[in-house]
Specification:
single chain; seven-stranded parallel β-sheet; 14 helices; about 20% strand; globular
Length: about 350
């Protein structure tokens, strides 16, 4: 098998590209990377060195995508995995990429399978491209069973669906001490709540908290500044380098989250935990640490045993203290389903 991995859309999904490289290597497949420079910048260099690399440098996107088809037609590629399609819609529309045997990753169920609420040319083009690639795909990829269930049970999607998690279980856990309470991801008051986390920081000066992400807007910069005034909180003013991001995740005692579960964009409404995943779930399982999250959120079903739900500040503080003191016991047995050997076997016949 020669697998091609295509991503010229989002460096935020670079972990999926790495997952597929690891899986290909594990299964003794050849792997070809067709990625943009910003995606490449987020990839592990050692993994990249084990692949045939083709880099999109910002111009001629359609021709670059056509080169994947040309390689496929000449017999150099058997399967194509598209890890994200979130930009370059015109290029994708007119590319020959759709003629390949490909699997496409669905990150937001309603965005791909719902009905667009905007009727401007820009949004109608995005809608049309998504529908075309959805229809032409050999199979679909999602990051969790929750999203797969939504596609089948609610939207009646009848294509084959495979699961490739956003992050994999770490096969060589960092032996550094677990000392941080980490709230990871871009700081966005539209998507997340921060009042409970702030009160936890104030009331627990003996605990080290990390707000692990940059502000997504001007108003969120003020929020980051508020946290930065506290001595026991680490914050970031700009994009967090991958090495720094991993450093704090690897040393996390608990992953914290407080989500606005009902997320609404200009085009679609999404529900975290049902039609849209959050990285919180995967940061937890990757490092085998519990997730402390608001009860409105529904975590992936096989991660329930490593999830602790809270109702408001008092409950959150009580459960955080119980986690720190090991008064609450968690089972990480299901984390095996996020391991490379398990997934390589499950996805061997894509």
């Amino acid at each position: 098998m020669n697998l091609a991995i295509v991503d010229i859309s989002s460096k935020n999904h670079s972990s999926l590209v790495e997952n597929w490289i690891r899986l290909a290597i594990f299964n003794n497949w050849k792997v070809s990377l067709f990625v943009s420079e910003d995606v490449l910048g987020n990839l592990d260099r050692e993994l990249v060195s084990k692949s045939s690399l083709f880099t999109y440098k910002g111009q001629g996107a359609r021709l670059f995508l056509d080169s994947v088809y040309d390689a496929s037609k000449s017999g150099n590629i058997d399967r194509v995995v598209i890890t994200s399609l979130q930009s370059q819609y015109i290029s994708f529309l007119f590319s020959k990429l759709r003629k390949c045997k490909y699997l496409i990753t669905i990150h937001n169920v309603n965005a791909w399978c719902g009905i667009c609420r905007k009727d401007t040319i820009k949004y109608l083009i995005k809608y049309a491209v998504r529908k075309l690639y959805l229809r032409s795909a050999d199979a679909l990829l999602v990051s969790s069973s929750n999203l797969a269930k939504q596609l089948v049970d609610i939207l009646n999607v009848d294509k084959k669906i495979y699961i490739m998690p956003f992050r994999l279980l770490c096969d060589a856990p960092d032996k550094a001490s677990k000392e941080y309470v980490v709230y990871p991801g871009m700081v966005s008051s539209d998507r997340k709540n921060y009042d409970t986390f702030y009160k936890l920081c104030i009331n627990n000066p003996d605990v080290i908290f990390v707000l692990l992400g940059k502000a997504s807007s001007h108003k969120d910069e003020a929020l980051v500044s508020k946290f930065s005034e506290l001595d026991n909180v680490t914050t970031f003013r700009s994009y967090v380098p991958m090495s720094t991001f991993e450093y704090y995740l690897n040393r996390s005692l608990v992953i914290f989250g407080d989500l606005n579960v009902n997320y609404e964009s200009f085009e679609y409404k999404e529900i975290y935990g049902r039609t849209k995943d959050t990285g919180l779930s995967y940061f937890s399982v990757e490092n085998s640490v519990p997730l402390l999250v608001n009860r409105e959120f529904v975590n992936i079903s096989n991660l329930e045993d490593m999830t602790c739900y809270f109702d408001g500040f008092s409950d959150a503080e009580s459960k955080l203290r119980a986690i720190i003191s090991s008064s609450i016991q968690f089972s990480f047995a299901s984390a095996i389903e996020y391991s490379l050997p398990y997934l390589a076997t499950k996805l061997r016949k894509i």
